[in-house]
Amino acid sequence: MYNTIRLFTTYSTIVIMLCTTLATFSIAEADVQIGDSMQTVIENMGKPTGHFSSGSMEFVTYRRGIIQLFDDKVTSTDLISYKEVKANDIAQKQKQAVEEAEIKLRIAKGTAIRDKHNLDEKFAELPAVERLTFWNDFHLQYPTVPIASIITPIKQEIKSAELDENRQQLELISEEIIKTEGEIEILANSSGLSRAGLQQTRRKLATLRENVVTLNAEKERLNSIIQE
């Protein structure tokens, strides 16, 4: 009889403790009840991380989820538990650690490729345009690996070559202008031409003069590039 009473008492104590724990857990996990006001929500949950309203409808966001209110009363909640929040935080930190490790690995790989090509004599002998194309593609794949000190001299090399080519073109154009102007002078002083020959000469003069205008424009363009 005594043992039965003792067993019942122990069982009752366990049930009471369990109910108390569940009740505490329920209150802790469900800080917001349907019908609560916005003030109550803030008192229980703290300041929300986000807020959106449309007429009488309101939505407030927390790390644990979203709460919907209508006319300042909670109508629905979509909240996760504190345990889930903690688990999410741990998962996020783990994900961040993995991403940081991948970034470091990628930087190390890119740095190795950069240094290898930068010291490669055969690569250095390639045309500047090809080398610049390679480094531009490299930058797209490894944007965090610095290559400005490599690309800048290549760009200057290309610009210098373009300037040399422009100077050569300018010399040829200047010679062409002199030649064309000589032809114009000869044709302008022509005499004893037939009517058909005179018309042909005039057409040729007009064409040559147009060519001179075009050549002078190109000459000015090249001069402006060289002087930059």
Structure description:
The structure is a single chain. This protein is 72% helix and 11% strand. It has seven helices and four strands. The chain folds into three domains: 2-79, Beta-lactamase Inhibitory Protein, Chain:B, domain 1, CATH 3.30.1450; 81-146, no CATH class; 160-228. Residues 1-29 have low confidence and may be disordered. The N and C termini lie far apart (110 Å). The chain is an alpha+beta fold and 228 residues long. It is elongated, with a radius of gyration of 42 Å. A four-stranded antiparallel sheet has the order 1-2-3-4, covered by helices on one side.
Strand count, sense and barrel status of the largest sheet are: 4 strands, antiparallel
Mind telling me the C-alpha Rg?
Answer: 42 Å
Q: Spell the H/E element sequence.
A: HHEEEEHHHHH
- What structural category do the secondary elements indicate? alpha+beta
Uncertain spans, ≥5 residues at pLDDT below 50? 1-29
Which secondary structure elements does this structure contain, and how are they paired or packed?
Blueprint: H1 2-29, H2 38-45, E1 50-54, E2 57-62, E3 65-70, E4 73-79, H3 82-118, H4 121-124, H5 128-141, H6 148-188, H7 195-226
Antiparallel strand pairs: 1-2, 2-3, 3-4
Helix pairs in contact: 5-6, 6-7
